[in-house]
Amino acid sequence: MTLTLNWISAKIQVHIRQVGARLRRTGMFSRKVLKWLLVLAVVAGLVGSAAALFLWALDTATRQRFSAPWLIYLLPLAGVAMGFYYRHYGKHVSSGNHVILGNVHADKNPVPFVLAPSIIIATVATHLFGGSAGREGTAVQMGAAIAAGCGRWVATTKKAANLLMFCGISAGFGAVFGTPFAGAVFALEFTGHRLISRKIIPCLLTALAADQVCLAWGITHTPYPVIEFTRSFSTYLPIVWKLLFAAAVIALASRFFIVASHYAAGKMREWFPHEALRAGVGGIVVVALFLMVGTGDYLGLGVLAENKDSLTLPRFFSAEVHAPATAWLWKLVFTVVTLSVGFKGGEVTPLFFIGAALGNALAWFLNAPVDLFAGVGMIAFFAAATKTPWASVIMGIELLGWHVYAPLAVCTLMAWKLSGKNSVYPNRGDL
User: Fold this and answer.
1) pLDDT tens-digit profile of 228-240?
2) Is residue 24 domain-resident?
């Protein structure tokens, strides 16, 4: 009997110790979760606020250029100044996407915080003087730099530091475009990581919070029309072949953009090794193109209208606007020259402009719905050029509405498949 009681007592003590250990582990887990939530909140607050400042500055710079058209003639001087800065003070951050991907995949030098203010100021200057660039590059680099700065204080492992950087990229992309779900997926596709992983949850939480912080500052995003598309065989089947044809054309155009971008960047580095000279010459070329085409529609983001007849990204959705067949090509040339010589910004909004202009022209050619083809053209061209198909589809749904998901997915995924393996972003083998 005594032995039995002793055995039971020993078992109870073991069970109590096991429960105590489990509770201690749970407590430690809870503290770890709370710590990460606090860190992600800080990252979201900082990146969302930086995105708001950036978008406000970008809007102000664009409107200033409209009110002072002579600023375009100062683009070469702005390029020289930018080139001197990056050569003497910012050489380690001049190729921002290479810096980020090199840190993630090749464990190269850490992403410096100075990347954030440098890319914001350079991008605003690019748009103030008329360079044709976007803003996603700024969003990605700004978010990654801020998150990496926070990571140096709290991350104890390389894995934790990378996760924070993914969250920063998600926050930057989601806040700048107002598409937090796409931002979370884009961060993983951009860095070449699996989408179905535990990283997606903190990335999504950070992007959602950063987007709300940005909106809290009073920032409004580019309005896109909600495209109404009846999901039925009677409306879908007649345009399937038109969507596939459009996807093939968009894939071909995206291949041209990718090849032209890499070729132009390589040749400009070869011909003009000095960054200041390269950007100065590129600025002269952009001014010459502006004088040749006789309009400022292909300068800057292409989102705001200088006058009521200007070709802008939102106007391509209107059935009353028949985009010139060469509008997409002119924007492509302006963008390739601007980015290949060292001006800063990104490719996404110009890709949107090119894709929407091409979609508008194809809609008139194929007798298809203009708003639908402008929308799917915008998203499909982005996916084909950047090789981020799932982020693109999600972004299209966030911007254009759920009704368009079927034609959007068909055109986007087909254009992505037909566009080859190369991307406008750096290849991992080049890091």
Assistant:
1) 777 666 677 788 9
2) no
